[in-house]
């Protein structure tokens, strides 16, 4: 008798999550829409969702695409688990974890600015230009250090935590050069040096 043809293995029900992506989400996102695709189901497929905070619901399926709107995401970590079940009671489960961070505390602390060169707050020189350097620090991050000498000009230093300026132009007579450090929140602090060009 001819051998019976080998049985064709059933293709397993598959469930994919496309959104949300795992990881951090914006701080003001109190709910997300989960969506993805389902394939190889036998008959009608139902998809339910549940979070580890106790919320649950059902996804809407159109063709092979599914979506679940208004899945709540309280502050901190939320694991969303989706379960697909077809007419033959085959089930498949997938989950994704998102994290809603607390809003950052408003940074009101200005940077600290130190000038190493020129040394002192009153300096005399015969040069038409001087250089300057120093350090700056902040509780979050220093974004830039700038200089200004009245109408003669202004500019941005090279470097932040350790900064330097190659050439600051000087008028003959008294020059008040203002150095300013900024942080990411826009806070700033300043120091000035009076440079007298002979």
Helical region count? 0
Largest sheet: 5 strands, mixed
Category by helix and strand content = mainly beta
Strand arrangement in the largest pleated sheet: 2-9-8-4-5
Instruction: Please state the average pLDDT score.
Output: 89
Q: Beta-strand percentage?
A: over 45%
N-end to C-end Cα span: 115 Å
Rg from alpha-carbon coordinates: 32 Å
> Using DSSP, what is the number of strands?
17
State the order of secondary-structure elements, H for helix, E for strand: EEEEEEEEEEEEEEEEE
Low-confidence stretches: none
Shape, please? Answer: rod-shaped
| Helix content percent band | under 10%
Word description of this protein:
It is a single chain. The chain has no helices and 17 strands. The chain has 198 residues and is mostly beta strands. A 5-stranded mixed sheet has the order 2-9-8-4-5, with no helix packed on it. A 5-stranded mixed sheet has the order 11-17-16-13-14, with no helix packed on it. Strands 1-3-7-6 form a 4-stranded antiparallel sheet, with no helix packed on it. The protein is rod-shaped, with a radius of gyration of 32 Å.
């Amino acid at each position: 008798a001819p051998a019976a043809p080998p049985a064709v293995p059933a293709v397993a029900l598959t469930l994919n999550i496309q959104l949300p992506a795992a990881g951090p989400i914006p701080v003001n996102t109190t709910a997300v829409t989960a969506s993805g695709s389902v394939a190889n189901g036998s008959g009608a497929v139902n998809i339910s969702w549940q979070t580890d905070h106790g919320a649950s619901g059902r996804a809407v399926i159109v063709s092979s695409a599914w979506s679940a709107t208004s899945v709540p995401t309280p502050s901190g970590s939320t694991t969303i688990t989706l379960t697909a079940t077809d007419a033959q009671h085959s089930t498949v489960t997938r989950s994704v974890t998102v994290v809603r961070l607390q809003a950052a505390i408003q940074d009101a602390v200005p940077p600290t600015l130190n000038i190493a060169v020129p040394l002192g707050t009153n300096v005399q020189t015969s040069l038409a230009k001087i250089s300057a350097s120093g350090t700056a620090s902040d509780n979050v991050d220093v974004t830039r250090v700038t200089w200004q000498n009245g109408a003669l000009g202004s500019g941005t230093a090279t470097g932040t935590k350790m900064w330097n300026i190659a050439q600051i132009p000087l008028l003959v007579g008294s020059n008040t050069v203002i150095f300013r450090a900024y942080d990411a929140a826009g806070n700033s602090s300043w120091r000035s040096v009076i440079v007298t060009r002979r």
